[in-house]
Every structure is written in C-alpha cells, then in structure tokens.
Amino acid sequence: MIASQSRIWTPLDFERDGKFVDYLRLPHSTDRSAYGCIQIPIVCIKNAIGPTALLIAGNHGDEYEGQIALMNLARRLTPREISGRVIVLPSANFPAVKAARRVSPVDAGNLNRSFPGSATGTPTEMIAHYISTVLLPMSDIAIDLHSGGLSLDYVRCAIIRPGRTSEEHQELLELLRVFGAPISFVDSSQGGGGGGGATTLNAVARSLGVPTITTELGGGATVSPAGVQLAEHGITRVLKHIGIAPNLAGEERAGTEFMDYAGRDSSIYADADGIFEPAALVGQEVFEGDLAGRLYYIDDPTREPMELRFRKSGRVECRRFPSLTARGDCLYTLMLPTVV
Amino acid sequence: MIASQSRIWTPLDFERDGKFVDYLRLPHSTDRSAYGCIQIPIVCIKNAIGPTALLIAGNHGDEYEGQIALMNLARRLTPREISGRVIVLPSANFPAVKAARRVSPVDAGNLNRSFPGSATGTPTEMIAHYISTVLLPMSDIAIDLHSGGLSLDYVRCAIIRPGRTSEEHQELLELLRVFGAPISFVDSSQGGGGGGGATTLNAVARSLGVPTITTELGGGATVSPAGVQLAEHGITRVLKHIGIAPNLAGEERAGTEFMDYAGRDSSIYADADGIFEPAALVGQEVFEGDLAGRLYYIDDPTREPMELRFRKSGRVECRRFPSLTARGDCLYTLMLPTVV
Amino acid sequence: MIASQSRIWTPLDFERDGKFVDYLRLPHSTDRSAYGCIQIPIVCIKNAIGPTALLIAGNHGDEYEGQIALMNLARRLTPREISGRVIVLPSANFPAVKAARRVSPVDAGNLNRSFPGSATGTPTEMIAHYISTVLLPMSDIAIDLHSGGLSLDYVRCAIIRPGRTSEEHQELLELLRVFGAPISFVDSSQGGGGGGGATTLNAVARSLGVPTITTELGGGATVSPAGVQLAEHGITRVLKHIGIAPNLAGEERAGTEFMDYAGRDSSIYADADGIFEPAALVGQEVFEGDLAGRLYYIDDPTREPMELRFRKSGRVECRRFPSLTARGDCLYTLMLPTVV
Amino acid sequence: MIASQSRIWTPLDFERDGKFVDYLRLPHSTDRSAYGCIQIPIVCIKNAIGPTALLIAGNHGDEYEGQIALMNLARRLTPREISGRVIVLPSANFPAVKAARRVSPVDAGNLNRSFPGSATGTPTEMIAHYISTVLLPMSDIAIDLHSGGLSLDYVRCAIIRPGRTSEEHQELLELLRVFGAPISFVDSSQGGGGGGGATTLNAVARSLGVPTITTELGGGATVSPAGVQLAEHGITRVLKHIGIAPNLAGEERAGTEFMDYAGRDSSIYADADGIFEPAALVGQEVFEGDLAGRLYYIDDPTREPMELRFRKSGRVECRRFPSLTARGDCLYTLMLPTVV
Amino acid sequence: MIASQSRIWTPLDFERDGKFVDYLRLPHSTDRSAYGCIQIPIVCIKNAIGPTALLIAGNHGDEYEGQIALMNLARRLTPREISGRVIVLPSANFPAVKAARRVSPVDAGNLNRSFPGSATGTPTEMIAHYISTVLLPMSDIAIDLHSGGLSLDYVRCAIIRPGRTSEEHQELLELLRVFGAPISFVDSSQGGGGGGGATTLNAVARSLGVPTITTELGGGATVSPAGVQLAEHGITRVLKHIGIAPNLAGEERAGTEFMDYAGRDSSIYADADGIFEPAALVGQEVFEGDLAGRLYYIDDPTREPMELRFRKSGRVECRRFPSLTARGDCLYTLMLPTVV
Amino acid sequence: MIASQSRIWTPLDFERDGKFVDYLRLPHSTDRSAYGCIQIPIVCIKNAIGPTALLIAGNHGDEYEGQIALMNLARRLTPREISGRVIVLPSANFPAVKAARRVSPVDAGNLNRSFPGSATGTPTEMIAHYISTVLLPMSDIAIDLHSGGLSLDYVRCAIIRPGRTSEEHQELLELLRVFGAPISFVDSSQGGGGGGGATTLNAVARSLGVPTITTELGGGATVSPAGVQLAEHGITRVLKHIGIAPNLAGEERAGTEFMDYAGRDSSIYADADGIFEPAALVGQEVFEGDLAGRLYYIDDPTREPMELRFRKSGRVECRRFPSLTARGDCLYTLMLPTVV
Fold first, then answer.
1. Distance CA B34, CA C221 (A)
2. Is E144 exposed, middle or buried (0-12, 13-18, 19+ CB in 10 A)?
3. Helix (H, G, I), strand (E, B), or coil: what is residue B236?
C-alpha cells in the first residue's frame, strides 16, 4: 500500500502532563469544504509515570451509556488523581454519533466492522486505522464501551476475547472480575450475533497484545441509568486495579456471573416480515419450546400470527428492540452459564 | 372543490352480515405502477341490528399496541357474538405502518394532522378524507388507538375531546370510565404536546357527532404488553357498554384517574442539541425545580452538561424516548389531577 | 384564490402566421437558480383562417410514441399546408420527460392527475393550469397522446369521454372513426384502471366543450413503431377532417372496433409481492377461469407460485409490463365489444 | 378553510417593555420527534409609545447580509434608545437558513413564493401565515432584507411595490430615499426575474397597508461587507425617520438612483446547458449587441462556445453567479434609469 | 488480507441426502438491525454418488427468465431423480432481486463485476466471495443464467469462455451443443458490451477449472416465455449429459449456431442524449450503412433527429431496450457467424 | 491484484498526426444501461517529433478556469503549430464536472484523493488509474489546473512538489518561472489545507518522474477572467519552453513570487457552526492577533459572535468562500515568502 501513515492529526500532545481537550482532525475534502475536517473530540489526562488506558465510546453512534460515562469521567478526572495516562475518545465514530446512527452517514461505515482500517480509505476506515496504528500502540489497556443501540436490548455485561496465552487469559478474566458487570463473557471467535470476527477493535487490540474489555450496557435508543453507572464504576475499578488511579474512590465490585454465548443455533431469526411481539425479557431464563414471541402479518390482519419458540434452553442475552421486523433480523440470542 | 367523492374503493360490502376481510384500494399511479393501488386492510364484522363501532390503529405507523390489539380482535371476534357492526382498520396509514414511521414515506403525510383530508390530495389526505366522509358517517362510536411511537414514552391513558353539549360530554366521560385506562384525559383544544387542533381524527369525529376515544398505550418503537392488554380489554368493555357485544367475556374495569394536561408552560423543550439523559419516569410525580435531565454536548465532551429542571409541579405525562435530541424537541409534558 | 393568472409565459405569439418554435417559461425559483425557468418546448404553426388543434404528448414522461409522432409532425408540417392553427406541445410535463418518468422528478406530480391545476401550485400543477386556462380555451379540438409507459403494455386504441349532449357525443364518435385506431373506447367516468376521474386533461377539456381524443399506443419503456405510425396517421386524418389541413396526403383509415372497459371487477390485482409471469397477451381473448399468470415468491423459491385466473371473460386491454410486482399492482384490465 | 389561527406560538410577550429574545415554536410532528418544534429565533425590543417596525432576514436561507445586519442590530439596540417597538426575525425560514439553502429542506418551500401562507400547511406555509396574520398586522413598517443568494450576484438596491394611493406611493418613495441604497426600484407587478407576484411578503404587506421595503445586498453564497453596512445604515435611518429611534447615531444618507426593471425581453436566459463565462459586471452599462458571455459545451470541448449578446441596452441589475448553467437559467436582468 | 474465510453461513448441510431449502445468512449489521442478516435462499438436492451442478440466477436482479426456471426446477426436481447433487441459488444477489435492479440497493454492487469478491467487503463482494470460495469449489459444472435486464433486449444464447486447454475447450463446446440455445458464443476476453473481464463469475469459475455456461434469455424488464423454456430444457439436457439426472425426461436439443462478437468497433453508442427510436430487431441481419435508429432531441423538437447507421455488417446481438437514452449508452452490439 | 490493465478504452489513436477529438469510454454498467459508458472527452494534437504535454482540468468538477482555458486551447491549437504532442483532458472527472461538484456523484469519489487508482475500482478510481498507467507514462510534462472551487477562494498560483534530485528540482523551479503565476509554491509533503499526500495526481506524476505543475486560479463557484488568462498564457509559455510550440505567440511572463505554506498551525478552522463573516482578503498581509472574521450563532441571534484572530503573521493563501460554516471547516490558510 502506498500510504500507511494516518492522515488524521491533532494539536494535542499526548506526552504532556495535564488535562487537554482537543480534536482529532480527519481531513474530509467535500463539495462544501475542500479543506474541511471531521473534528473528533479527544481528551488526554496525564501525570507522572504509569500505564496508559484508552477509553472509547461511540464506536457505534447510537449507543449512549458509554458516551455519557466517558464525558462524565473526562470532566471529573484530574491529572493529580492519576499516575500514568488516560486517553478518552467518547465519540469515536463522530459522524455516526451526531446522526444517532450505528453506521456513519458519511460512508455507511460500521466502525466495529472496519478494523484494522486504512490510511487512505473512507473516514470510518481512517478512524479504525488511527486507533489501530496510533492509539492502541500507546495503550496498556483498552475499554470499548458498547450497548445494544437502536435495534437491540442487551443484558448488562462485559466481554473479553480469549487471551493468546494462558497467562494473558487469566489477566483478562481478572479484568472482567474487577470491572464487575453482572454478566461476563469470554467471546471465542465470532461473538454473539454480531459476527464481526477479525474486523473489530477488540480483535485488533488482541493481535497487538493490548488487554481489552468491551461492554454491553443497555439498548433501544435510550439511556439506561444502570448502564451508565456500571460503566463509571467498572472503569474506576479498572483504573485502580492497573495502578493508574490507585486512590480514586469507587464502588465495591459485585460478583459477576460468567456466561457463554449459547451458539448460533440457539439464536432466533425472523423468517418473515411483520410486527414482532416478544414474549421473553432480556436476562430471563427460557426453555426449549417456550414461546419466544409472535410475528403479525400487516398485510393479512386476520392471519394467525407466526409463533416463534425457543429452540434451546438458556438465558436471554439480547432481544430485538423495535417492533417492526424484517426477514433475517435477529430476535434473540441466548447465553449459558459457564465455568472459567 | 371539483372532486368530493373519494377515489378509494373496496370490494367489501359493509351491509352484508358475516366477517369479511378485504382492502381499501387507494389508486396510486406511480412510475412503477400506472394503475397501482395502495391496499389498506379492512375487516367488517356484522350481524343483525345494532350500532356500528369503528376501530382504528396505525394512524401513526410506529405505534404498535393498537395494531396488535386490533389484529387479535379481528381474528377472534365472530359475527354471532355481536349485534351490529364492527369495522376494523388496523393500519390506517398503511404506507407508514410498512415503513415503521410516524409519517407516510409516500408523501411525508402525518395522518393525524391531515383531517378532514381531500379527495384529490396526497395518499395520506385521501385516507383522512375516506375516514371523514365514508367510515365516520357510518359509525356510532370510534376508537383511535395511539401510542407514543418512536420518539415518546407515554403514560397509558384514554382521551376524549369535550362534548359539544353537556349531555354529550357526560356520555364521553362515561365512555372513559368504561374503557378503564389508568389515566383519563379531557383534551380541550390542542392536546398535550401535539397541537394537532382541528386536523385530527378526533376533531373531525367530534364535528360529526361521533363519540370518540383515543388512547396512548406505550411508546419507544417497541410493544408494551400492558398497552396491548388495555386496548383489548377497553375495547371489549366499550363494545359491551354500547350494546354491540353484550355477552362478550371481559375483564372488569379498574378505576381511572382523571387528569388535565398541565399546560404548555409546564412542558420542557430542548434548548440545545445533545444527548438527553432523563431523570424522571413517565407517571412519576415531580416538583418545580426538580432535575428533569441533562443535555450533554457531543462537540465539547468536558463542558458541563445543561441541567434541565421542571418549571412546574405535576406528574409526567410523556417523555422523549431517544437519547439524541435536537433543539426544539419536547422532552416532557406534565399532567395534573382534575375533577370531572 | 389569490392568483388565477398563469405565471407561465412565452415569447411565442400564437396569433402570428408562420411556424414558430419557442418555450413556455415556467418560473421555478430554486437553490441553484433563483430566477430560473423550466423551459417547455412549444411549436405553433398558423396560416389564414381556420380552427385550432392542440396536440399534446409527454403528459406522462415515459410514453414515447406520441412524443416522436409530434416531433415528426412539428418538423414536417408547413404553414402553407394548413388553414388555421396547430399548437404542438410534445413534452408537456417536460421534467418528467427528461427523467423518463411518469411523474415529475421536481414535485412528484402526475400531470394527468393534476387538472385543472393551480396558478400558484407546484410546477406540474402550473402546467395543468396553463393548459386548462390558456391552451384549451384557444382550441377547437385536442389530442392527448398516451401510451402504457414503463409499467403497462396497452392495446393500441383511441378514447373519448361521453359527449355532454347527444350531438357532441356523435361528433366525438365520428372523431374516433376518423382517427382510426384498431380499438376505440368511450370512457365513462373513471376510465380503465387509472381512476383519474375529474383530474385528467380530458375531463377538463370536456367541461370546456373542447372535443378531445386521447390514445394508448404501446408501452413498456420502449417505442412501438406501429404506435408511432398510428399517431401520425390518425392526427393527419383528424386535421383533414376538421378542415385544418384538407389537402394533406394521408393513409386511408381502417375500421375501428368499439369496446367498453369490462369493469373494475374484471381487473386483476397482485395480492402478493413477487415475480409476475404473465400467461395472456394484450388484445387476446380470455375466458373466465383461464390462467392469467403466476406470481413467484422470491423468499420461498420452492413454494408453489400463486396462480392467477381471470374472473370474467373478455379481451385484454392492458397488462403489467415489468416482472417484479408488488401487492396492489394492476396486472390486467379487460375490455368487451360494444355497440355505439 | 377549517383552521385560520396560527399553530405557531411563542412565550415572548410582544406587549412588554424591554428586550426579549425567544423563539417562535412551530409544531413539527415528525418521525424523530412527535411533539417537536422548529424554533425560530425572534427578538422584541419595546419601550414607551411609538410605532412598530418589523425587520426580517433569512426569508431565503442563503442570503447573508441581512441576517448579519439584524443580528448586530438585535444585539446592540437597547430599549432606552427607542420609542415604540422593533421586532426582529433574523432567520425567517429557519430550516432554510440552517441548510444554507434558498428553500426549506423540510418541505422544499420557497418562503417568498408562499404568501399569504396557510395555518395548516407545510412549515414554510405556516411561517408565511404567521407573518401575514400575526406580525404584519402589528407593524407600521416592514423591511425584508434579501440578497442574490447562491445563484445570483445583485446590484445593491432597495425596492418598493407601487403604493395603492398617490399618498402611499409618495411615502414609499420617501422611505427609499431615506434608506439610501445606491439604486432604488419601484417594482410593478412581477419584479425582476423572480416573478413571485402575489405570493411574496411584500405583496401581502401591501394588501395590508404596511409600508414595506425589500433589498438586494450582494450574492454568490458569500457576505458582502458593503451590503451588511448598507443594511445597518439604511435601517437606522428608517428607524429615525419614522420616529422609533430619533436619536440613534447614524450615517448620512447618500443619494439614490431610481431605476426600472428593463423588462422581461431584456433578460438573458441560457438556451443550453454549459459553463457560463460572463462578460459583463453587475451595475455595468451595456448596449444592445454587446457580448454578454459564452456558454461552453462540456460534452464537445472543441465546439465553438455559444456567444450570448445583449438584446437591449441598459445596466446590469443581476447576473448568474455559478458557472455551471442549465437551460432555462436566468443569466442577466437589466435595469434602466427612471424618473419617479 | 486478514480474513479470508467467508462470514456467510447456512444451517443447510450440503452433504446430506434429500432436498433442503434454507438460506445463506450474510451478516449485515445496520442501523435497523445490529445482528441482522441478508437471507439468500438456497436449495440443495442430493442423492447417492455423482457430480455436483451449481445453478445460479439473479446474479443481476432484473433478469427474470433464469429466476423462474430455477424456482420451477427447485420445486419439481426430487432427490430420487438424481445421482449427485444440484445446488440452486435462484436469486444470488438477493437485495438486487428484491429491488428489481441490476445492482444491489445495499451497496450499489454489480455482482458480476465483483468477482472473486472479498470476505470483509460489501454484501455484494461477500456473495461473490462465497460463490468463489465455497460453492464453485464443490461444483463440477456451473450454469449462470443471465438475460438482458431492464436496459437490453438480447438474442437468446449460451456463452462459454475459451477452455484453458484444447480438451477443456472441446468439453465446453459440447456443453454448448447440449444446452442447445439458438445461438452459442465463445466469449474471448471481454465479452459483448459488458467488459467485465476478470471480474465475472465465469472468469473465476474458469480459473478454478469448473466448466461454466452463462446465458442471455430475453430482456426489457419483462419475462420471455421462450427464454424460461430454453433455460429449463437446456439445464435438463446438461444434467442428463453429465450424468446427474440420466433418466430425466427432456426436450430434444435443437441445433445451435456458433457466433462471435463482432468487435467493439461494430457496437453503436449514443453520442447525444435523446429518445432512441430503433430501426432493427434483435437477431436481424444488418449491413454497413443501414439505418440503426434515430435519436430525437427533446429540447429542440423541430431539430432533425440524429440518424444512426451501422458501421459494420452482421447480426444484432443485443439492442438497448428503453427509449430515453444518454450519451454513452450502448445501443447495439453485433455478432458474426463463426466456425468452432 | 487481479486486473491491472485499464478497462477504459478509446477509439482515439494517440500516435496519429493531426487533431482528434474523441472520448475515453469508461464501462459503467448500471441499472439503466447494462453496457453503458461514461464518455470523457479527450483531445490529441500531434505533429512531427517532439515531447508530449498532458493538460488536465476538471480533476475537481467545480473548478472552471482550467476547463475554459483548455477548451479554448483545444479549439485553437492546430497540429502545424506544434512539434510533438498535446493531450488535453478538459474534464477529467467528467461526472463531477457535469454535476458542478468537487466529487463525483456516481461514487462520491474525489479524484485528487484517489491516485494511483485501481483498474477494478469505482469510476473515479478507474480514471485515476488510467491517468497513472496510460496518460502520464506517455507524457514529458503534465499540467493539472485547479481552482478553489465552490468552497474556497484562492490566490492565483502555480505549485510544484519538490524534485527528487537537485537537477529535477531546478527544472521544476524553472517551469514555475516560465508559467509565470503571481505566486509560486513548492509544496512539500501535504500541501496547504488539502492533505492529499500520496493520493494526488502530482504525487503519482512525481513518482513516475513526470515534471508536473498544478495551479489554483480562482474560486467560489464562478469564473475568474484573470485565472482563465493566466492558465492560457502560462500553458503557452510552457509549451514554448519545452519546445512543443516554439513559435506560438504568447504573453511575456511576469515575475513570480515564491512562497511557502505557513504551516498547519497558521490555518484557522471553524470551532463552531455559524455564519462566517470574513475580515481579510485573499492575498492580504495579516499579522498575529488581527481579526480574521466572526462566526455568528444562528440559534442565538443576540449572542456575541465568536471573534477569530490570526495566530501567526503571513499572507492569506486561501479563504473559505461560502458564509454558512460547520465546525471543522478550514477558514484560512496562510503563506510566507521564501527563497528558492
């Protein structure tokens, strides 16, 4: 490839002590602004010697708990509370955040399906590339805060990918315990229903050896106060744990329950277009054969709705949020308790 | 005006005994179908002599509780259970329903701002005109089932406009008591935050002397099971009450609480773009000066979020559902107990 | 209404002898041209004393036989061949013609559903208003050339609305015989499948007492050479017949067959989305119960396709042209022989 | 019509002394905000007894000199400097202003072609209706500040419509002299190239008997400092003249030159698509036969460009600004000196 | 590249005997469905031991004869009629099929210009990649059924690319004879007018050593019954020939005529925008200098239309179907008899 | 990569003496034209033996001075005036030129951010690839004419990239002197505000060893006559200088001033959305702390506008042209005198 250095730049100096708020400037030459930039807010808080934590939200623009938690943290955290560096990117795919969308309105890019990105690609690919080649390499730990977004309601949880060595794996499991989400996942291969595989931030971070936690904190286009709180407490505990903010006051961690994704065959997909009336809640225990919901046929109001039944037993990990549903939409994924 | 007779037609014969499911055919001549129709499902159940009830949902396409309740009713109700006629229009603005939108994708029309409609107007105006000139004139009572839709979370309630005479008003209040929603409103003039005034179905029905109830049954793009149940039970009670289905088994009505909209000055509008973190729930009692929520500035993550406080005391009637908010969005309307 | 005089103007002088080619200038103030116009070509050929014929094509932009016939006529006809005036508007809804669409890309307007139009309305309504208030009132006869367009294949025919008096009716029937299409229709009220009613050019011309013929000359987005030829010969015969061009060489007329639209109940509409495989040709005689076609389900390739059967006997007047079909599309209309 | 009272409301009290900044709230019920408003900024400055001046800019969203001048005025003017009332609407078609467009992105409405508007129409029509039925009736004088916008470069001028009586006419001419633009127009009937006729603010104001000046202050999507200055000085002089701000410091007026639009036949329209290379400047004197510009054919680079020549003598009133031009665009209008 | 394994998956087991109908699930994470899939129907019919035939239609979504033929085949063919395996993909670029478009509405992708595809690319690229890396490698023969689609009318024909060895070439020629289209082509390098080169399914199949036939079966947005029939008979003959369905009843093959594309210089392109009136039919023999058609100028109705003449002699292979034409559109390609 | 030979072809023979006007045919297979082409005009003028000059405009479609200059040159220059070859591509990104846009409406491609392009990419990438692999390799010199376009007003200047050797550098500096723009730049690495880096035509030309000049000739969506003239004179002088047209009459060159881009830190970006009122002109000398302009807040008309001040001293190289501005837009870049 011809260009491998990011064209994104910032006046912010990551090596300087203090708290600095500035922008990543992503050159975006358009009809209406030939020399225009997409300005992505970034905050760097640094003091003394210590590890670097990279905190990201707005990877998908329609997931709000993490965005609020990181804006609160960026506002409140002071350099003198830390030893090391905290880099906060509260709205990573900034155009998607401004548009309340999962994907960017500029290039239809889904940031978490765009890693490791490209220096000469679309804006979304350039953001992925900057995170992969600039931010992650400076980091000792990364937390990427997701939620269910517009289309999913999600159990509150934290997720790791399996460590590449047994030692790394134990370290990641410990991070999950410290973060203290009600549910913790070890996501082997392709995750729940997302199937992002190697194109996610987490996958790239893993290949770079940066321990990384992602989360799911709520969903449905709105804000879950419990999700915001979990993000704030979990991050605080992790910053203490890795020694960046050893004296920060924080909530005691609660126990977490380790779960496994119950497998692709336990997911339920819509086999027709229609109005989805769900019959189970996120987190609920369900049994094979239980009613999962009904799909009503808009064109044929007196036709018996399609009854959907669970094909396996388990607990509901996530559920489609909006009622109107198209063939192919994922309606449920299930999870199962596991021992780690 | 040149044409005042509806161009919408249907093979369905409203005068025939039995249950018939067919379509309103709205001629819609487009590039892709010169002689095409929009087919709007309609069900007519008729038997013996008795009054006519017109049941409508999908006036706004993104409001689901009523649509599900009416599809269930249309499927289950048999002619021999009734004396009279039940006309069911479960997806009145059909193109909006298919698109999961409040307004029609065909003409951007908001059906409940398009009454009394026009025979030669846009498809949405033609639907309003058909309801105004064909369906309402055949009806002795009308129920128009709304919910909060994508953008609002709404207290479960039923609503009337004030009767034009004291007698009519008492009859309408009695209908509210029979319907049995937890909350009942008498909406004078312009309603809550909607301001539809004379352009709503209810306003036209009132001018025609057809007693009409509307509802709000949930919101937020998803289905509220309690809202579906309320619609089903409330309609059943009304059908019994007016003598169409005197022997239908039905749930006892619960008491209803009469409320008034607390006035335009008690509503809270967003004065900036941002992420809205609400601090009060629908139905909750709030006091002047209480925190209503915060608006976070995406462009300036470390700027103190704008604190929004209630300007009056009351109870929350509805609340904005999605987090991303633009200047001018209504965030809350309040209601106050009243004596009828 | 405030403004009733057309804002459309033209430098062309309709009272001057000779052949003049110019534009109707429709003021269209847009972002890209505050004082811009839509320029609609118009040709006026005038000589001596005699009646005025108004010849129109491009009422729908995707119907080509009439457009070609009128461009040929406007190019070839010389003033000295006529006594009277021939006004040619070969692309009446000019923006629709440029876009190869039935409706205008500027305002989504279907010109033949926009009569009598409005002086202050959308561009399509302004064109309808100009034809209604300026061109038709100068005319002694009007011919409005249609075809099936993108979505229909149509039997070659000419159409009148019933005369308002018996004398007028006989005059119109004679015009049909002179025009000499293979099939001639008397369209009472709402026409075949179009249902334009009072909003068509023909309806307005009738109310103004201008004898008017419309045609259908082919269809399917392409040009039918036989349709072009019929338009050229038919117009020549009519110009001779009414004395404008008594000496013009022309083809002898063939006999025409008078037909009636077989009624709304004989039309076939698609009751599902799918791929339409037709089983009968335009003009073909069909019998009740005959196979009309099949609808294949794209989502369920092994599901038996829906068989569509004719519900009445008759001959095929028009048939849907494109394969992909949506619920509500008209697939066939039928016609029946009649005595006039 | 059913509804004639505006649905637009504002917390601002026009009768209260002081300076108040608030919003017109235009209910705009959309998919993303069922109870949402378009918030149009409005400023009211009132003190003691005296006449009311209504100052408007942003009638077209892409015209900036007036918007800046009114924001400056609204910021600087204090109640104690005036006797009477100054109502400032600096961005009348607010959605168009936010979008840098002549017309509204919400409904494609051109506000100055939408008067007198409609209480139940599109947002643009509702704004026109509010100005026509609420703001103009409170006003003793109105100034509506326009410029050439994106597509035109315009001579700096002020414009009146002819008074309905000789006395009214003299009063309006005196206002033009006081305003003191380099050029002053009396616009009979249809104005320069715009042809707005009865659908403009000025036409409605005239029918209500409110003396009204409009202006053209620059053009081409950018800001003319001289245009901003003219607006500020002209308004100040008018406010002094009518007694609202008798002591306000202001620039002496310069003499104005009275001109007439040279007539539709002197305008030059593009007769082909192409790149327009102009040969005359705004304000320049030109003679019949002079080169006006060239149109280059993009598809045929070696084809001789079309030479455009002036068809009459006069001075250039306005000229198309952007190079790329479509058939029908107005390239020039001319003006001629006149005696008033 | 990071990810080379397809993210498309299916519950269908290609190794199991019987007939199974299921979907390819292509993960497509969007605003409206974070874990959504595009579900592409696939049918697998397997029995005993024998070769595998891959049958594809809907490579371009607007080409219908192949889609209908494969749905009929998939419905009718039973496992006990075969020895081996028949994999049927009747709507390969499923989103394009649903939209009646050549290219996908999801990513504007033209599937037959997207080979060999990409595991991490757009949905269209992912489909190409799945066919290239999963389906073709399991196949002993492939048939990819095309037609002219919306924009072309095509002679009925079958096409191969030249074999890589003389033996392979003879085998492919024999397949053409067995398939039995009226016309057979050997397409060296870039095909007729399409110029897809190495980016087509056929090119990739060739590089994998899978003998492949493509077809053209009609065109113009509608269904050609003769094209459907040819596809059904041709496929049946091929399945018999290669031993998968030796006892299937089938039509005798007719002789085929071998033709060569007459070369780029014999094609006719539109040199102006206009309405295209063609003068020759598909399959017709034409001579250098013959009239090919006329282009009418919409803006200048009395301008002499541009006459297009054939530049070489030959027979018409395909012809533009729609009338409205833009500069650069291919109007005709020619073919010439050849000896194989 | 699989395909590295361009799929763009042309009937034009670059090796033939004479002047030939033809098209590059870029195969663009779309819904509306399966075998369609984008036809990009190209002119080749050749005579005797001598070097080849490649002259390009319309790299960005909204930059007009170069397009006009090259159309004039292509029309006027005759083969007998030259020894060698002049290849003229006056509208390189042809779809962008037709749309008056910087980027292509077909694929949103910015041609000067798409080099070296791709043979199988989007149309814009295919054009870049054709220039990189076909046109530049035939050329001894290239001139790529830019202007500020819609969004920038630019000082008239010519630009080189530094030579790869001292000798090459001297040759390029001499070309700048010969071209004779008022200002000359040596653009190291990333240019002014554009940041195109390795993805520009100039960068690829440099890597191929083709001496290349680019220009900026005006801006703001309109034509600068002085810019057209500079292009015409500068090109004539260069053609004389390199011996292609030694006897062409031409204007004497004026002296040029060598400048350096003042660095990223001297640029001014908008830190808020608003209306930009500039305070300095292109070419003007400014000092640190001088007022650069004001940003007015549309939503808050009485809020004090944001004052923007220059952060360094220098001269204005370019300035944002349109008033309405979004956060991230570049408002000014500065330049400084330099010694070469």
1. 12
2. buried
3. helix
Task: Give pLDDT tens digits for C199-229.
Answer: 999 999 999 999 999 999 999 999 999 999 9
pLDDT at C340: 84
Helices (H), F180-224: 201-208
**Integer Cα distance of F205 and F163 in angstroms:** 11
pLDDT at A191 over 60: no
- Contact present, C318 and C216 (Cβ < 8 Å): yes
In terms of Cβ atoms closer than 10 Å to its own Cβ (0-12, 13-18, 19+), residue E134 is middle
Statement: residue F45 has pLDDT above 50: yes
Q: Where in chain A is the domain with CATH 3.40.630.10?
A: 18-260
β-bridge mates for residue F99, sequence order = none
Calculate mean pLDDT across residues F138-160: 97
Q: Which of C104, C107, C320, C331 to mutate to test the interface with B (most CBs of B within 10 A)?
A: C320
Q: Which residues pair with F38 in a beta bridge?
A: F26
For residue C240, the distance in angstroms to the closest alpha carbon of chain D comes to 35
| pLDDT band with cut points at 50, 70 and 90 for residue B3 | very low
Q: Can you read off the two tokens belonging to residue A323?
A: 């009622």
pLDDT score of A215: 97
Distance from CA of C163 to the nearest CA of B (A): 19
Model confidence pLDDT, tens digit, residues E242-255: 999 998 887 888 89
Structure tokens at B180: 């049995």
d(CA A315, CA A318) in angstroms, rounded, equals: 9
Tokens of A107: 């290039």
Q: Do E100 and C304 touch (CB under 8 A)?
A: no
Cβ contact, residue pair E275, C64, below 8 Å: yes
For chain D, give every residue range classified as CATH 2.40.50.100: 262-337
Q: Does position D67 have pLDDT exceeding 60, yes or no?
A: yes
Sign of CA dihedral E305, E309, E315, E319: negative
Rounded Cα distance between E193 and F34, Å, is 8
Which helix or strand (DSSP H or E) is residue F43 part of? strand F37-47
Q: Is the ipTM reported for this complex over the cut 0.90?
A: yes
Residues C93 and B316: their CA atoms lie apart, in Å, by 52
Architecture of domain E18-260: 3-Layer(aba) Sandwich (3.40)
| Interstrand relation of F291-296 and B84-89 (parallel, antiparallel or unpaired) | unpaired
**Cα–Cα distance between D25 and D7 in angstroms, integer?**
9
Residues 51-80 of C with CB under 8 A from E: 62, 64, 67-68, 70-71, 74-75
Structure tokens at F139: 């050329």
Show the tokens assigned to C192: 């075949």
C136: three-class secondary structure by DSSP: helix
Examine the pLDDT at E325 and tell me if it is beyond 50.
yes
- Rounded Cα–Cα distance for residues A11 and A42 (Å): 11
Q: Tell whether A107 lies on the interface with E, counting CB pairs under 8 A.
A: no
How far apart CA E262 and CA E314 sit, in angstroms, is 7
CATH of region E262-337: 2.40.50.100
State how far the Cα of D331 lies from the Cα of D319, in Å rounded to an integer. Answer: 5
Residues in contact with A165: Cβ distance below 8 Å, sequence separation at least 6, in sequence order? none
pLDDT over 50 at E85, yes or no: yes
Q: Are E135 and E89 in contact (CB under 8 A)?
A: yes
